[in-house]
Design a protein that fits this description.
The chain has helices at residues 21-32, 51-61, 76-86, 106-113, 131-149, 165-170, 181-187, 213-230, 234-262, 271-303, 336-341; strands at residues 6-14, 38-44, 65-69, 89-94, 119-124, 161-164, 192-197. It is α/β, with parallel strands linked by helices. Strands 3-2-1-4-6-5-7 form a 7-stranded mixed β-sheet.
Length: 348
């Protein structure tokens, strides 16, 4: 028997954050009173500093804190994927465990989600990170991702985001894809918004990011346009390149044939002949690669029960005068009395 779905799941990937867990739990407990029925899913991504024991004790004290322990450190994307798999909420909110994201901003994300959006991303307007090693690379990456994907966000790197369940269920997470989740969701028609959120300086532990991630993001950006535009039709990408090379190689071979047969000139020692033959051969290779990609994609969709479309809503199965469909998706209602009495969160 499966557990009934909750209104909200808060997914928190955790890696070596022993000094932050207790304070994070206190902040989550404070905002919990303002939220609909919910749970917190803490993903221990192979911690080695005592975080595991703290999380297990936290779960024993309050089962609202669900804990999933991974066998080793798989990275933030894999930890988020594990959180999505174990979350039961109709809405999933993600945030970091280092206390730089503020759980008090969760109601703001949920309110924006209720305006009809499928993904709401946080924007750290007043970011409390090092300027050279964190803020400058992040600003450049955000502009490149926005330009590449067409989804204009100020802060792709902010972990504090809210997703509807159907969004996270349709996403396949691998590598470092967590940075591009709003763009991947937008590519299938999901509506994306952004709201300003608070950001605090790190007080415990050390950052897991630095300049070393710049080259990783650069490589991901090279693959992202292909994934967004040609994932389900690789023949159009590789075939276009192949036909262009074939046309160029054919034109060169035609010109060389005219020189040899019409003008009676020697062409055997011309570098242009080698270039023309290489272009034709590469044309065949690219088209063949596209055809192989088509076979792989068809196996992907057929073998995993996938579909080449995403349904936002289906008004089906209703009889004459009887409607089993809801008029609109259920809104995530907050505790208005608690919200009205809530004082402003302290600035760390």
């Amino acid at each position: 028997m499966t557990d009934p779905p909750l209104a909200l799941s808060i997914v928190v990937p955790v890696f070596d954050e022993a000094g932050s867990i207790e304070e994070l739990a206190g902040r989550l407990a404070t905002v919990r009173a303002l939220l609909p029925p919910s749970e917190a899913v803490l993903i221990d991504d192979g911690s080695t500093d005592g975080t595991t024991q703290i999380l297990e004790e936290l779960h024993r004290r309050d089962p609202w804190f669900q804990v999933v322990r991974l066998t080793r450190n798989f990275g933030q994307t894999a930890a988020l994927a594990a959180g999505f798999d174990h979350a039961r909420g109709e809405v999933v909110v993600t945030l970091d465990a280092d206390l730089q994201n503020d759980p008090a901003d969760i109601p703001r994300l949920l309110a924006k989600l209720d305006e009809g959006y499928d993904v709401v991303s946080g924007w750290r307007v007043d970011r409390k990170d090092r300027f050279v090693t964190r803020r400058i690379p992040s600003a450049v990456a955000n502009r490149l991702v926005s330009w590449t994907t067409g989804v204009r966000l100020h802060d792709y790197g902010c972990t504090l985001k809210a997703y509807r369940r159907e969004v996270v269920e349709s996403l396949d997470l691998y590598g470092d894809a967590h940075r591009f989740l709003p763009a991947l969701a937008s590519a299938v028609g999901d509506r994306v918004a952004e709201v300003p959120v608070a950001h605090h300086p790190r007080r415990h532990g050390r950052s897991k990011y630095g300049l070393s991630r710049v080259w990783k993001v650069t490589l991901d950006l090279l693959a992202l346009p292909f994934l967004l535009r040609f994932f389900d039709r690789p023949i159009r990408f590789f075939g276009t390149i192949g036909f262009a090379m074939g046309a160029a190689g054919g034109a060169l071979l035609g010109w060389l044939a005219y020189l040899r047969l019409g003008a009676h000139r020697a062409i055997g020692n011309r570098p242009l002949l080698t270039a023309a033959v290489l272009l034709v051969v590469m044309s065949v290779q690219f088209i063949t690669l596209g055809l192989l990609g088509e076979l792989v994609i068809r196996s992907y969709y057929a073998g995993r029960g996938r579909r080449a479309y995403h349904v936002r809503r289906a008004l089906v199965g209703c009889g004459a005068g009887e409607h089993s469909c809801a008029a609109a998706p259920r809104a995530i209602r907050l505790d208005e009395d608690a919200a009205s009495s809530r004082s402003a969160p302290p600035v760390v």
